[in-house]
Amino acid sequence: MKEAIRTDKVRTVVAFTLIELLVVIAIIAILAAMLLPVLNQAKQRGLGTQCLSNERQVVLAATEYAGDSGDYLPYCNADLGQAPGPGWLYSGTLLEPVLNKDDPNICWASGVLFSYHLMPNSKAFLCPVDIQDPYYDLRANQLSSYVWDFADSGFAEQVYKSTKLSQIWSPECILFWEPYTPGESTMALRAFNDGANYPYFPGYPSEGLGPLHYNTGANVGHLDGSVNFMTVTNFNNDAESPAGTGPGRGGRTYLWWSTYSSDGH
After folding, report:
1. CB 189 within 8 A of CB 135
2. Where are the domains of the chain?
């Protein structure tokens, strides 16, 4: 009698050891640690690019406004939130339109630039990074992430006047920028108490450019319609320069360009 042949196969169970699992988890953790900073940088670049696009709309609107207004730039809203007339960002008392949550566009519509290529995109006034600031909702000025150069009004407090575009010594002069004082709630609120700031004011670090993007600087808009990223260091080299030492007429600089004084300050 022939011996029966077994046809069933022996099954082999393959399993990971605890050490092998730990090794795999460690490799995944290392890869994640390597990729997360890259992804975060890509996200920051994307937000920075969106901010640049927003600022271009604002600065182009300003130059178009000047073309329609006898070459005068809009009033800079350096009025502690009590505008005596329409400015680039708002008109009237700042806190009143900000509190209108039912129709937020009415807030921006009081300013003279809103109808220039901005309507109904009021987000053009806001940097997507800036509005994540934990102190944003506490500001008097929640209408814009950007502040106008107080040089437009000759650094005269609450004086309703502006400057002819053609009288400014260089089209490369800076019209507005992004302030930011990380971790300093008082300074952050002071930076946005109206629509304009000094390039530099002793004891008020919020008045200048802040490290809003990439922890090194932020975006600035120029009179020629261009917008670019600038480091805080380069901004401060101009902002803190002594009066009369710049390359422009009378020693004006790209930030201190007032036409109401001999040296731009």
Report:
1. yes
2. 47-251
